[in-house]
């Protein structure tokens, strides 16, 4: 029998539902009816309830507040909300409280009966899950009292070198475990949904230990069948295998097959994905920590690759440096010239390059932040209002680093790229604006040419010098000569600050054929000579 509580502030609605539903015929019992959420909350404290049918708008405590209360305190209760038309979108927000169904008033007896029958299936499912968890809890408690825990601790101490190797081996021999093999390797298993890819509440943390117990049993059964090593638990939630090669020539392939079988079995039995890392081979037990640490490194790759991994680290040759310079130049060019497809494809190539390099999270975030800063320089180059761009910049960069996955961090950067692309596209919406932006881009690319002139740009844009001078001044607030000199001086400052080049070398680099004229121009703009500037700024 399924126990149902009805909550609605309209007595006519409550009476109609009570009288028009054949409660006994559908295997249910209406255990109570309340006129507001406050009464309902008090009722469930004193009486067992399986399903709550509740209205939205009620005095003292409405249906949303009641759903919140039930979600936090009685998660096994199935909630059904019915509401008026104007409240329906509001009711949908209750998804965060695990509301199972939404009904639009007026509700017919047939419609409500159908929903209740569906909710009975949910109650059955919750009961089965609860029974399963209770069984697992009992089994787990029993497991923690037996000798397997002691064995796991002893093997973990050996592998992680927390005790003397000879003492660990002697202790294991006393347990009947003889570690004598040609070589050894460690495989590590970690259940994805309980990893740091997700935010775990207390219930999930408790559940994770139970699921690790299931994983342990599956692994132990398969490894014993194949006689290839020893399964042990590391900490509360991880399961490891200490593989021992004694006779098989293709034992490397065999270990991977065994790991894949465990992985598939866990998915079949519990519907849960597991990430697995396999360390390289070592020749003696004293080196097992090297294999263990390699296996553990795979768990860090979940940030880049997502979960459900099976990686043999002996096969991996990670690239620690990602060459982004060419791609950053291509992204800059595509943004300035308004080529959306190239912007998207270039960022995708960047994302793939970082992912394939298998770098740690901190370095992956550094590359993404480098992309953001490159975009900022694009905006500076085309004279965008930087106050508008830099607003919230620290929050954006912080948001990249706090994401649980590389994909979610990439989505933040991609959204930012497309926001800047739209901004630049809007700025280039008129012919005059677009030509001014193209001219700025041309100067950025060719400022080092001492012969760069107004005629060169006008020829590039295919417009007259008088028309160009007018629109350029109008759009940028500066003349061509002013922008060119400013660009050359900014580049000269960078070289003076960050290199040990001579003044005449810098002059040549930024487009001055006469070093003396460069010195005069630099002092006119900055108030100091190049030598004085370098002395103050160089580190």
Automatic annotation (TrEMBL):
Per the database record, which ranges form the HTH araC/xylS-type domain?
437-536
Family annotation (InterPro entries): CdaR_GGDEF (IPR041522), CheY-like_superfamily (IPR011006), Homeodomain-like_sf (IPR009057), HptR (IPR051552), HTH_AraC (IPR018060), Sig_transdc_resp-reg_receiver (IPR001789)
**What is the name of the protein in this document?**
Stage 0 sporulation protein A homolog
The family database entries (Pfam families) matched by this protein are listed as: GGDEF_2 (PF17853), HTH_18 (PF12833), Response_reg (PF00072)
| 4-aspartylphosphate carried by residues | 55
Q: Which intervals hold domain Response regulatory? A: 3-120
Keywords for this protein: Coiled coil, Cytoplasm, DNA-binding, Phosphoprotein, Transcription, Transcription regulation, Two-component regulatory system
Q: Which Gene3D superfamilies match?
A: 3.40.50.2300, Homeodomain-like
Q: Give the subcellular location.
A: Cytoplasm
Where, by residue number, does the polypeptide cross the bilayer?
Answer: none
Question: Which positions are tagged coiled coil?
Answer: 109-146
Described by its record, this protein's role is as follows: May play the central regulatory role in sporulation. It may be an element of the effector pathway responsible for the activation of sporulation genes in response to nutritional stress. Spo0A may act in concert with spo0H (a sigma factor) to control the expression of some genes that are critical to the sporulation process.
Segment forming the signal sequence: none
